[in-house]
Amino acid sequence: ICMETKTQLAKLGLFDAKVPRYTSYPTAPHFSTEVGADHFSSWIRAISPGASISLYIHVPFCRRLCWFCACRTQGTQSDRPVMAYLDTLKSELALLKRELPQGVTLNRLHWGGGTPTLLSPSMMQDLAGTIFDVAPLGESAEFSVEIDPNEIDEVRLDVLAASGMNRASIGVQDFDEEIQQTIGRIQGYDVTRDAATMIRERGVASLNADILFGLPHQSQERMTTSVQKLLSLNPDRVALYGYAHVPWMARRQSMIPSEALPTPAERLDLFETARRLFLWDNYEEIGIDHFATQSDGLSVAKKAGTLRRNFQGYTDDTSDVLIGVGASSISKFPQGYAQNAPATSAHTGAIRDGRFSTARGHVFSEDDRLRARMIEALMCDFRVDLADITNRFGVAQTQVMQMLDGIATQFPDMVSVDETGLFVPPKARALTRMMARSLDAYDLSKAGHSSAI
Question: Sign of the C-alpha dihedral, residues 290, 207, 273, 450?
Answer without folding.
Answer: positive
